[in-house]
Amino acid sequence: MENSIIIINAADIPPALQIARNLSSYTVYTFDPILVDPISASGLRNIVYTPFDNCPLYHELDASAHSAAFDLERTLDLEVRDIVPEVSIEGWQHLNLYYIFITLKWYTALWENFGNQLAGTKVHLFICDTPGSYYFNSFIPSILLLLNLKSNDIEFSGFTYGSKDDDGHLIPELPEGNQNEELEQLLIHLPTCWYDINYFFQEMISTGKTLINIEAKNFNIPLPAIKTLALTELESTLANLPEEIRTKINNFSRKLAEKLDRILQPHLVIPNYRQRQTQQISNTYCAQLVTYYQLSRYFKNSKPSRIVLSDHDAGFHGPIISFAQKHSLPVILLPHSKCVNDIEFKYRNITVLSHPIHGQEIFDANHKSVLNFKIAYPETFRSSSIVGEIRTISLLLNSLSLNGFYFTRYQPYMQGIRQIVSWCNQNGIVLKIRCKPSYSIINLLERDIGVSAAELTRNANETMDQHAESCDLCLMYDMPTTGALHFLKCSIPILNPIVEYLAPSEMTLGNARLVPQESVENTLLRLKWFTSDPTTLFYFRAEQFRNYMALFQIARPLRAYL
């Protein structure tokens, strides 16, 4: 019987290697294009990547998962309203629930399409022994495949690995006394702001206000020389709360767990795994509720003048924003990477700040517009008055998938690249394809497009500035990326060929008024004009650069909003 090794996540590779050593023959199957490179590098043989081309379209999957998360939040909020009438828990776990639902929807569809193709083989399946949380690896995809294999009477062996402690019980350590009561305070919580944290931090320090930073459970960025509220165990804090609050939280937890178990039953039918997933979500809600009460206690006598958050909710945004709403405190939302998506909360005193490139309206959970102002990021501009020809084009790729689900279907995505490669070859133009280094698809591009892996690796290893300086024009392919800024600031013309309809979260990364978003075919027509008449290219480049610089005219330093 043929052995089939299924790799769903990069963390499956080490246990797969252990199993493969004891098999005389096997085939490795993966359905995620960004896993082909690490699987190939691991030494595993007989790798088959099977694209999922009748998959749910990402913009539909995205909308469906958001809708399911909002519906669940409303249901849970109503369920516990009589226990905690003082606060609404809507929005508190929206991002977490969104990723759980998108994972359930995607992998249910995937295994329905491919599960029976494994008939007649013995399937080796790896189960990450961790409940679903954000887009982290979890048991959800493997458990759904396990159920599919059982229903199709396919032989399999399951291997469990990677148990992770539930971090839902962690909360900020908020003592009873706030030593900064006499000073003006900014409460800050900025997970995931890897690229711009130094700028943000210096701007906040320059205000002269006291900064109180809440550590994040995930995606934390340490900030030195300021007051940081570290994380502590929920149980120790809970034990010191008044009995009335403890009773309320216990009732809250029980009610949530009962309701969640009923809601998740159709999706996770194995009781043990469903209960663990339910408990993880319930624990997080309880920790968030305790955080809400603790914020009120810590800031009892002196409230922060502003609360500054990143747009990436790492678990504490809900109670922090509910605390702000209770006391009518202004909230500033900063982008973790230049642009901000729609937000999950209904509180109206939230102002979003973003890079001038951000060109989309932002909506809250009530579908109302959110105030959005521009930050004057530190940026230098460089232009050229030379009328040049196009000799080298950058094809700038963003990630094709995340946690297995596609942003664009594989075959249309590759077909668009083939068209661009063919056009460049016919016109004597060098095309430099640059994969996103952390989500590369180099082996698949070599196989399906014919570009050498060595060349693709060299391009991926360049810094973005080096890459931009070596090109005369950029094609930001399909989903936009903030990598566009490296071209715009140097007056290198940039276009955005789109393969499939973009979801709102993808559109926020681009500004169609500045960078034309057109089909691959129409983009190539525009390139034909540019190559046949360099003056046309010169005028486009000059206008695009002028319009980009104009975006900064209304931008102000971050400190001006604090």
UniProtKB/TrEMBL annotation:
What's the superkingdom here? Bacteria
Q: What is this protein called?
A: Uncharacterized protein
Species this chain originates from = Candidatus Accumulibacter phosphatis
